[in-house]
Amino acid sequence: MQAIKNLIKKSRIKSPWLLHYDCSSCNGCDIEILACLTPLYDVERFGIINAGNPKHADILLVTGGVNNRNKHVLQNIYAQMPDPKVVVCVGACGNTGGIFRDAYNILGGVDKAIPVDVYVPGCPPKPEAIIDGVVKALGILAEKSENLKNCVEQEDDR
Amino acid sequence: MAPTVIPFGPQHPVLPEPIHLTLTTKDEIVTEAVPQLGYIHRGLEKLADIKDFHQLVQVVERVCGICSCIHAATYAQAIEALMNIEVPPRAHLLRVIWSELHRVHSHLLWLGLFADGFGFESLFMQTWRIREKIMDVMEATAGNRVIISVNVIGGVRRDLSPEQCQWILSVLDDAEKEYKELGKVFLDDYSVQKRTRGQGVLTREKAYELGACGPTGRGSGIAQDVRQTGYSGYAMLDFEPVVENDGDSYARCKVRYREVLQSFDLIRQAINKLPEGEINVKVKGNPEGEVITRSEQPRGELLYYVRASGKKHLDRLRIRTPTFANIPPLLAMLPGTELANVPVVVLSIDPCISCTER
Prior knowledge:
The complex is a heterodimer.
Chain A: H1 2-14, E1 17-22, H2 28-37, E2 49-50, E3 59-63, H3 68-80, E4 86-90, H4 92-96, E5 118-120, H5 127-157
Parallel strand pairs in A: 1-2, 1-3, 3-4, 4-5
Helix pairs in contact in A: 2-5
Chain B: E1 4-8, E2 20-26, E3 29-36, H1 56-61, H2 68-83, H3 89-117, H4 121-142, E4 151-152, E5 155-156, H5 162-188, H6 190-196, H7 204-210, H8 214-218, H9 249-273, E6 288-297, E7 300-309, E8 316-320, H10 322-333, H11 342-348, H12 353-357
Antiparallel strand pairs in B: 1-2, 2-3, 4-5, 6-7, 7-8
Helix pairs in contact in B: 2-3, 3-4, 3-9, 3-11, 4-5, 5-9
């Protein structure tokens, strides 16, 4: 049983699957995220795959600020992702609301709706910066999965 | 069998952006499609109350990150028309060069996503590989890959040196050679044609009636291209609108494929005709009056309405984007489509939701 747990932990960190959701970004960040997947940057060499299904994903990449209409969509997607999960917020709008901070339909950054682990600044951030953010997220994912394991073991002991 | 209702979006693997379509299907055939919008509405036009008319250039660039340069240029055109500013010819042609670079990168992006939409992963990768060359040009000439912020009211803020022009021409030659090889796959491949021919047919009459614009309209035989009106530097260049007559997804793909080649040609023409001189003029005072300007975005006709009353802040800024005009034609295309082909048909209008909802 321990061997299987170790294997799951290792493969989770070795090959994280991404889910991308566009909150209310201008597309700039979204096309840079897509550019990460293509031959020049090619994050697939790190085992990273862009998944379409929240239930398959380990890392949630969010772009753009939150508004009243997409807030519950984002929370729904976040709730559907299995633990451990990490949220990476890409771009100035997602971090704080950015240039749209004062617009009437923007509530603010992504952290107004769901907890965020890594903030990637830039308008839009370069693909290198996004990859850097995802690599940072992997460290947090390893930590979270360790904590999760401890929780489960304590539960088992009881 | 009773009709089944299938929700499509807002989070869907084929859509980079959220739009929701409620599809009513009968035996796998779509009978009705109802859209729901508003997931990325930001209230951008209202920012005209807070930001002054110079700062708004940076705001309108962020209407859409894919065609940001064209948004800024159109807005600048509107203010320049209000304030009677004479933009130097060099600035006009520089705007054309960056706008056409944006068109090339936008169409390559779309061709890649379209290939991904019908499940041709390697074609997607190849198209985006070529697109990176264009992004390199953007980064080298303007300092940023996506939102390049070269436009200001009264001209542009960056210049191209003769060496840079030569380098751009050599990159374009490279990119064009590789792009033409991909064209064989996009236009002649059996399996690609199987997925795109006859899908989402929009007749010429229907397209005209529903107000389709840009490549969606031109794919149905409507020869409308706002660049033909000769705004900015386009009056100095020589080109014909690209038109196809079939009105299906294949025709729209072919229009965009040929438009990339046309844009390569326009950039070459603009670089060869680039006159010496100033790149911007000083702007004094505030705008007054109202004006409508139009321009051709990669997705179709873009319209800006500006009303000002001699103050720093505009009274009203109204933006009408091409995808807004192309959603009614999309809803007309969807009935009769198989459910598996819905992504292909939705992508074929090149939806840009952040433009539509602003």
